Amino acid sequence: MPSQEIDIRYVAKLARIALTDEEVEVFGRQLGDLLGHVEALSELDTASIAATAQVVESRNVEREDVVSGCLERERVLEMAPQAQGVYFRVPRIIAEET
Amino acid sequence: MTQWESVIGIECHVELKTNSKMFCACPNEFGGEPNTKVCPVCLALPGALPVANKIAIEHMIRAGLAFGAEIPEFSKFDRKNYFYPDMPKDYQISQYAMPLTQGGAVRYWLADGSMKECRLTRIHLEEDTGKSLHAGTTGRIAGSSHSLIDFNRAGVPLMECVSEPELHSADEAIGYLEALKRTFVQLGISDVKMEEGSLRCDANVSIRPAASTELGTKAEIKNMNSFRSVHRAIESEIARQIEIVQSGGRVVQETRGWDEGAGRTHTMRSKEQTHDYRYFPDPDLVPVEVDRELVESIRTALPELPHERFARYRGHLKLTPAQATQLIEDAALGDYFDACVSASGHAQQSANFVLGDLARLANENRMALYDSPVRPEHVGELVRMVESKTINSKIAKDLIARMWAGDGSPAAIVEREGLAQSSDVGTIDPFIDEVLRANEKSVMDFRAGKTNVLGFLVGQVMKASAGKANPRIVQERMREKLG
Amino acid sequence: MRPVIEQSAAELARAVGAKEISARDVIEATLAQIDAVDGSVGAYITSLHEMARASALAVDRRIAAGEKMRLAGVPVAVKDNMCLAGTRTTCGSKILGDWIAPYTATAVQRIIEAGGIPVGKSNLDEFAMGSSCENSARGITRNPLALDRVPGGSSGGSAAAVASRQAVVGLGSDTGGSIREPAAFCGVTGFKPTYGRVSRYGLIAFASSLDQIGPLARTVEDAALIYEVMAGHDGMDSTSIDRDVEPAVTAMRSDLRGLRIGIVKEFDTGKLGHEIDALYKRAFADLRKLGADLVDVSLPTAEFGLATYYLIAPAECSSNLARFDGVRYGLRVDGADVGEMYERTRAAGFGPEVKRRILIGTYALSSGYYDAYYVKAQKVRTLIARDFQRAFEECDLIACPAASSPAFGFNAKSDPYSMYLMDYYTIPMSLAGLPALSVPCGSVTGEGAHEPLPMGLQLCGPLFSECALLGAAHAYEQASQHAKEYKLAI
Ligand SMILES: [Zn+2]
User: Fold this and answer.
1) CB contact under 8 A, A79 and C385
2) ipTM at complex level
3) Cα dihedral B272, B277, B279, B282 sign
4) Which partner from A74, A93, B304, B396 sits 20 to 30 angstroms from B383, CA to CA?
5) Average pLDDT, stretch B473-478?
6) Catalytic residue positions of C, numbered
7) Which chains touch C (3+ CB pairs under 8 A)?
């Protein structure tokens, strides 16, 4: 298991949550504690064990390529914290992420 | 002085042609009123779940088989986590660890007809994002005051084709892209329209000393919105890198944007931002176990692919690279041409008509040749009559116009109107005698050594015979008579 | 006749179907109870008086037209993480603001089609993360049997509503124990079906590979009825299982003869104190008296369930909750640019427990830690599921506690990990995807308690063994009648 020192600010940046200094301290400690408990898993030898992503095996669940109804735009834009005309509006985008 | 070799890899995003989106039943159509093609799933409303589109998966298998890729037994979807306002879930459903196709190669050709190959790393399936309009000053992201978002395109199925870094010039990059495009169109799995954003590509460009096998530091070039701009951007980037290195500098790894107006690339992200996409298997979707029977039935149904057709046209049919390319550009025209060849038995002459007079008429009439009244069997008849010298080229031209006008079989017209060319000396001689009589001065000139009047005299015979005399025989007989 | 609000769903649906009582009367009686008691319980975030009245009229019209409905007129509490078109859906969070769902969850839709009538959206720990309902941004819910105590969580609102007769049945969702633990605390039956049995479409995701909708009810038979109505394949949820749902209501049995019930060696109830130990020993003995063979089984990796769960569930939640970004719906706190807007919105919109789990999950998936944490946890998940498979070679069902203590007081668990420990007995089944339920098994005097507090017996079976499980639970419930011991404190 890796070290329990968590760069909580980096993680919060990835998760896009602003943290106060106090939260950084409290969450940092709590997550460290939790990872301490998680450490117990290293007791188990899992080298030859397959990972379970889904517990009930299922394959090839696909839909037919058919179109059905969409939401009404009025309803869609009603939800928006901010809309402008027929669009959702957001503050300026600083850097291209993709 | 060091010779430099450029090394280019291309990543393409190609929208798949389906009725509905990748994970929901909204229509997959270009354009339309903003924010009208959305539902709880593609708008990522709380509680909505994705279900994969069967046809999109089949299209991926089609693409993979066309390039000789491996279609693994088992494939799955992963989440690529990052925040972006036009990406509704703030993660993209993509394929990271186990894509639907792996490996394979794109065979393409250059203008001189040489065949090349560029291996593919993988083609994987993912979903498109919505579209941001950057409002404020210039419409560009920099300097905008806010952005407006249309989610119509969010969730459209997208395949990402990643090439190995095996392209070595802008021409090769374009050859590769054109081959991808032709293949996808031929397979019917995408419209591949760069202007509608259904094909988008980035290029990784680096240089290295010729004969070196190590890869140099690459720059990733973005914002190229046509094949022409891809070509210009790559050439400009190669030149930029060579200049840096030759003046003692070092190329830095970065993302650069192509500025069409300025004709050069510029830094977008000076340092490669650390992307931590936190890929993990999407627990909302189940794995795909590719049915081998499905793979085989798709393989069997694959059409003749562009590079196969190119090889056939160049090899067996001996067409020029330009002719072959033109016929492949439009697969239906290629099919039409193939029907002409099987009716005529003469490839080159068929190509001359299809890409010459007939193409001109099609162009003038703004109609595809294969939609015109000119049937391939009629072209076949025409070619056969020309090859057997039953008619001469002038009559052939007239016939083409009449075929286009809907007069049907050219053989029937020739028969009906007695247009067949004559090689019979008994028929031709009276015309020659008449012309020689009427042009005494020319006859004297010829005999005085001005042999170039022969052409004029032959022309007069052709005119007198209404074009039906075989010009070769006319010339022979004329020489004999002028002795 | 017993008062309407005391009747079971099966009784009410029959009476409404036979026109002995109208759906309207049933709903009015329920709404009156809500008006009378919910001020002190706080089971609902949003009550749906008007919609419920309109739905009751519609049900009565359908009855008049001759339609047969299995839940005709049955008042249902819907956990507020399930979408119901036209109603506010909050997930117990600030981040959704007053978002009105424009569509209905499949499970809820099936209830409505069967004549069930949602009467309120019930409280929960924010995004179903918690075991006490104290993590709701929309206020606390009190345990109707001991108002100074929590109702459990995260489906505490539905459990409290059912216990306090503010609904006949409730819908909950269970990710690591969120139906079973509040059912135990509130003295009702809570049933988590096999993962994938009930569609998750319209259930606001916490951890996709674990979330499962299930019923809370005052009788096992009602739980079976609600399960039967909701279960079955849904084309809108890729993980919903395409497999026949055997009739559960008719699987009720009166004894346990021929059943082998496993007692888990590692779940030594002696650790839970004398009184609780004695209670479970008596419950196990009662199972034997009903004809079951008790066999010892071993789940050697079950003790790693908690650690495994607290990697997998947060990892999935960190991604599932990314969509709450202030762009399309819900809360937005503005910023100079999009990035700042995201960070402020999510800082203001999520409570501490949700933030904690998003952070731990983000960390567990991040570059360099993915294999050590997330993949490792998924491998241990395999081991845990295998342990159950082996155990079910020796037994048909497993019996164990639903929770390690009865309902506790407010603010009693200030350390997050001590709260996580509440799910010690329920998490392994969730990781293995197994059907499990909690049925009342008596009461104990809790620490500093004035009144006896309910406890729940957990029964669990192999995948898809819902009928066997419900049938056995019914036999135990009917023989023991523990629910009758519980007295409402309102
Ligand atoms: Zn959609």
Assistant:
1) no
2) 0.97
3) negative
4) B304
5) 85
6) 79, 154, 178
7) A, B
